[in-house]
Specification:
Shape: globular
Distance between the termini: 75 Å
Number of domains: 2
Number of strands: 20
Number of helices: 26
Radius of gyration: 26 Å
Helix content: 40-55%
Strand order of the largest sheet: 1-10-9-8-7-6-5-2
CATH topology of the largest domain: TIM Barrel
Amino acid sequence: MKAHILGFPRMGRNRELKQAVERFQRGKIDAAALQACAAELKQNHWQTQADAGLSLLTCGDFSFYDHILDTLCLLGLVPERFQNEDRVVDLTTYFHMARGDRERNIAAMEMTKWFDTNYHYLVPELPDQPRFRIDSSGLYRDIEQIQAMGCQAKVVLPGPVSLVLLAKPMSAQLRRRWFDALVEAYQTLLRRLGRQAAWIQLDEPVAVLDLDEDIRREAHGVWRRLAGTAAPARLLFAAYFAPYGDNLDLVCDSGFDAVHLDLQRGRDDLDALLARLPSTTTLSLGLVDGRNIWKTDLVAARRCYQAVAARLGPTRVAAATSCSLLHVPVDLASETRLSAHLRDGMAFAVQKCVETALIAAPESPTLEAALADNQAALARFRESALAARPQVRQRLANVTETELTRSSPYARRRRAQAAWLKLPLLPTTTIGSFPQTTAIRAKRRQFKRGEMNEQAYRQFLKDEIRHVIERQEALGLDVLVHGEAERNDMVEYFGEQLEGFCFTENGWVQSYGSRCVKPPIIYGDIQRAKPMTVDWITYAQSLTEKPVKAMLTGPVTLLCWSFVREDVPRAMVCRQLALAVRDEVADLEQAGVRLIQIDEAALREGLPLRKADQNHYLSWAVDAFRLASAGVADATQIHTHMCYSAFNEIIEWIARLDADVVSIECSRSGMTLLDAFESYAYPNEVGPGVYDIHSPRLPRLDEMVRLLQKALQYLPAERLWVNPDCGLKTRRWEECEPALAVMVQAARQLRLHLSAQTVG
């Protein structure tokens, strides 16, 4: 093992997998065609790694939807409601687990964020009695294809400890039962794969979390029992995203043949790891950042690599990416419009494979030339790319606590807002976006290609807004939105109008399933040049007597869902974003818009994985939201939205946001996120999502009523809103319109029930 990556992006340079998966889901292609697309992509990915000079080619990292879902299917751990008669896990069953079964009205598995990233994984549902049906034939084929290329294969598998700890909560007794059962299942799997693969990478990212002593002891036992079972293949222990910290001894004593260290997030572990690493264990150094798009300083990285090699010996060190390259775009060569000086500072997945190989490469004239090119490019980038704006930094320096605080407490604001809103009990609304139809996407492409003039495009968008308003009025929603037809993405749209951002043409990154996002790149100080949303929102309000809610993306989400500059602290970048959003809020209010939603879907995502670091982050993140939102009058109602936010873990900090209304994802978890309200008297209004927008399944009326009744056990009706889990951008009208009709009916049914109780 000299140089390897922990994983490669799945979607393809031109999102070929996304297109194939969605065509399969619509019945346009069959399973064989989808598998053929996957086979071609995997072959391309392996060839990319081989061409870069990596010593191991990684397999097992490819997925049609999610790698945790793949592992469950590999082990035969399919929830009973999805099982077919012969218990075979075919592609139909696989996608039913991920998206739900509309025909049989079966809800999808719960989905949440993968640690502190914007990637989503399927939460394992582990029953009381473990039962396995292992099918590793797909991995065998991958290994054979890599060997046919004349290369060595490394298989990636999520580890058993992470599989259990990331699953739906279970008792300590059941956890121990699953650990024991999974050890036996993994031993079987590792023995099978070990006969063919050179290495097996067991991903145990929970090893960077705060673990209690019982779990630490049990995890250590699991790892010790797995050590050596893959022979003749060697076993690599991999974790990432944070330091090992107090779990370092467990990892060093795992008995694995190699240990991986994320040097981007866990550099503080290096000296301790070098001191404690057993004399026969290899150290994989995560020197290339797998989560950002900036070029690696190869001279500095090689210096670190060589220092470790000098201490451990050259055969006991490997160069690697910090984590899987799943979190970065595929290929910088696809970007033809970025300015040359910005490209000088960037590397995407293909380029990061080359960087990783160069760090471990032997001295040669070719290497010397590559290092010289790397240093020259970085010098050009650093000299010209990072745009500083003194006026932005001076404004930040002048911010006071007063600007972070609403002028009145919530109770007084609520009376002022109720006086003009005049909403019924359990008011209904949506999170903001409506379907981005084929027609909308086609017109946007035409406009960007210059095939449609601005006047015609704006008129098309106005017609779409009118259409969305009319549909919402027909449904009977109480608070309307304009539908966001003009927006390509909730972050990119704003970034395009803010100074300090740049954009890619094809820099797509997987978020969940076939859903991809194209994160903007923050390279300089940020400021807003002009209003970004005012015209569209005021036009929408002119079409209806009902209140229309303005939609903005909050500063923390703009930060977390962008690739961020590395020369200044993230907190400073976030406050710059907050000032830009604050200016937009002020312009909306001045234009007569008094209902404004500032989405902070990524607030929980940005939370450091170690508890000791969390309060510092939450303090500056919450202050950024308050800076963006607190400058309005009492009668202006501020909403925010958080999806997959582990709401109950940070409830006190969410209360400090002091948003008048917060909407959250709740349906897949069955309102369990509201358990926080049993111990914390949340003071403001809440809209727990009552149906899952990530599934095409139409929820039943009784389901929504039951979820609302459960919510009413935690919150008084006068502080409860009714809304979906998230925006409807990815759904079709024929899916979301019936669901919204049921949602409105559920709210009305409960209103009648509550009124009858009051009269009684």
